[in-house]
Amino acid sequence: MGQVGFGSYRVSIRSKEHRQSLVKALEAGCSLIDTSANYTNGESEELIGSVLKEHPNFKPIIVTKAGYIQGSNLALIDELNAKNLAVDDLVDISDTLKHSIHPDFLESQLTLSLKRLQRDSVDYFLLHNPEYYFQGENPTQEEYYARLKKAFIYCEEEVTKGRIKHYGVSSNNFTLPINDPQVTDLSKILMILGEIGAKNFKMVQFPFNLIEIGALEKLGDYGDESLLELCMQNNLLSVVNRPLNAFTQNNLIRLATYEDMYKDLDEKKAEALFEKCMQILKDKWAEGSDEMTTAEDFNEVSMIKQFTGLWNTLQTPDAVEQVYFGHFFPFIARVWGKALTPVESQPFYDLMEISQIYSRRNLSNKAIEFKKQAQQIGLLPDEENRPFATMAIETYLDYGFDYVLVGMKKPEYVDQLKHLF
Predict the structure, then answer these.
(1) CATH architecture group of domain 3-256+387-420
(2) Can you give the pTM of this predicted structure?
(3) Which member of 5, 81, 119, 181 has the greatest number of CB atoms within 10 A?
């Protein structure tokens, strides 16, 4: 049976709670930590390095990844390009997101990762979602695998140098149908590895959950193996990510419930706080009104009309942050005409916190409904009192995956899963 690994997508060295969770997981026997150079702009790796330095008796497997160009890496890629490095194969997606698996860029990322992790080597170094290549101009499967081949040759060299022990690929596209033009085809990767005589490709990471089950489906075009079976046949560690975030065509279903986070929600007080915030904003709006724009126009402002329908119906905490930080808070700043004082801004931050609680309830309601459906068709055992997330992850491990990565930012999440380390 496989094990649960500590997923550190959103953990940061700035958070005491994240540190507590990681230490607690390691104390409970967690044997693998997964991170990436771009997680919280490197602060995830910094936390891991700090914790392991303070607790040298812990010897977990460390997996890190590289490929994303965000945050501080945007300046780094400019510096590399100025030296005529990592110029080729750069995928320019937007001003704030680029991607590269060129050896020049991978070398820079590995160097930074080792520094943040306070290690001389990492156990596994993965190419992080190389399928971003397909968002560039005129992508082809031939060029995609040529870039992967170049990266594999580089990784073999780093194994020889001793900076990495093994390497692999983390790709959401491993589970696409084999004839999809953007698929990451493991059978083709294995052919390339044979061509270059590679010996150290040892890990494959991909999404899997109760809805996205592509890793178990027979792939057909090159035999009867599923992705999981192909991993097993070639002695590759199979690592599942996104085990509790299932994406459908229409929305996200979170395969976990959060009753403790909304059980004390007082909807009357929440509505009163919303009305208070709207009145404060309306009064401020009136101060700047002229003869053509009166206070009565406030409720017809597009931003206010949209926000009124959204503030307690948003489906995820991420969506709450996007609405508040991307739209509502900038609108407030425009109405104020200057920066708000902490006292002035507090009611609006209180309202955002309430919106977060509502989003957890909305997520949980969908999860509870899906859990019932999954139990009815036999995907989950018919048990009422155990956490949905725990039941789902135990089911994945029974399928034969080696590791299931779970984000455990809170110590209570560790408690729910410590029997699976």
Answers:
(1) Alpha-Beta Barrel (3.20)
(2) 0.81
(3) 5
